[in-house]
User: Which sequence fits this backbone?
């Protein structure tokens, strides 16, 4: 990988107890992008200590806090509350961040890293997001922040924030899409086996997660199992057998726990995934209908329109015309 004057540095801020996935997910996106785009990025891990231990026990080395450039991107990962607040008490780090934020191209936080940005005043009167479990606390900490609780990432000027953990990957892919092009971002998504590039305003609470949240112990594995066989035809008998219940018991439990019949439940999961796929222009609608287990495009279109009151083609066009990125 060549390093040139056009290489943009991605500076990940390390601190004791950080959430490792907040860091390595986005870091891999930029690293792969640099391999595909001939040294476009140089990833660095920086901090006030020589090494830190992540919350999962992994110890890794940090570089000294550098003198920043106008093309740099600073990314602050999250961590457990105590770890983040300890980082916020590191005056040397805060001083560097304050000076650097005024000079760099953009500053981003992953998950509870948003609390660091709030502490620096960088989120004042800005739209932002953090992990759903910390949103109320952030709102109390800094009441002038316009928190978008359901978003997975938010861009407001040069400040980017994300909901955390895997959404850091979504944020990084969006940056690559902005910096390089959509083709490269899609190639990286395929490299790391992300099934779709999610827009920032997509809810943190996906339909599968919302359904699984309501599942009792006898149906807790149903949603992941259905998700693993989207392209297949799955009968009520198949579902009942998977969870070890009779069809009658299964039907009753499905209505009780999900408020849906088994057939409706399976259909909604297929349509939720179809809606994600429709956001990508490159995937033909006929292909999406097959991926999501419909017999043909007509059946898919009929079911989609009944669920969302709009055809798949109109949904795709509407999504594009809204300029969502």
Assistant:
């Amino acid at each position: 990988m060549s390093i040139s004057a056009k290489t943009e540095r991605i500076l990940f801020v390390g601190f004791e107890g950080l959430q490792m996935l907040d860091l390595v997910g986005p870091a891999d996106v930029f690293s792969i992008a640099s391999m595909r785009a001939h040294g476009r990025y140089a990833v660095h891990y920086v901090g006030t200590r020589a090494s830190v231990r992540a919350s999962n026990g992994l110890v890794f080395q940090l570089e000294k806090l550098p003198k920043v450039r106008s093309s740099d991107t600073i990314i602050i990962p999250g961590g457990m509350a105590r770890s983040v607040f300890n980082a916020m008490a590191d005056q040397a780090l805060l001083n560097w961040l304050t000076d650097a934020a005024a000079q760099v191209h953009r500053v981003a936080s992953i998950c509870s890293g948003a609390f660091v940005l709030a502490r620096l005043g960088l989120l004042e009167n800005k739209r932002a997001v953090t992990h759903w479990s910390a949103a109320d606390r952030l709102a109390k900490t800094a009441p002038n922040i316009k928190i978008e609780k359901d978003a997975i990432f938010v861009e407001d000027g040069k400040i980017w924030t994300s909901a955390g953990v895997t959404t850091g990957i979504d944020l990084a892919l969006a940056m690559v899409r902005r910096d390089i092009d959509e083709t490269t971002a899609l190639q990286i998504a395929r490299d790391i086996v992300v099934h779709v590039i999610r827009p920032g305003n997509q809810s943190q609470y996906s339909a599968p997660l919302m359904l699984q949240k309501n599942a009792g112990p006898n149906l807790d594995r149903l949603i992941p199992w259905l998700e693993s066989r989207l392209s297949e035809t799955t009968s009520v008998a198949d579902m009942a057998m998977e969870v070890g219940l009779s069809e009658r018991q299964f039907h009753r439990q499905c209505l009780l726990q999900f408020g849906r019949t088994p057939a409706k439940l399976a259909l909604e999961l297929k349509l939720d995934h179809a809606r994600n796929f429709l956001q990508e222009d490159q995937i033909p609608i006929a292909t999406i209908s097959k991926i999501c287990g419909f017999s043909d495009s007509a059946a898919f279109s009929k079911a989609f329109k009944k669920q969302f009151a709009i055809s798949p083609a109109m949904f795709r066009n509407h999504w594009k015309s809204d300029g969502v990125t």
User: Anything to note?
Assistant: The longest strand covers residues 41-47. Residues 20-36 form the longest helix (17 residues). The domain at 8-191 is CATH 3.40.50.880 (Rossmann fold).
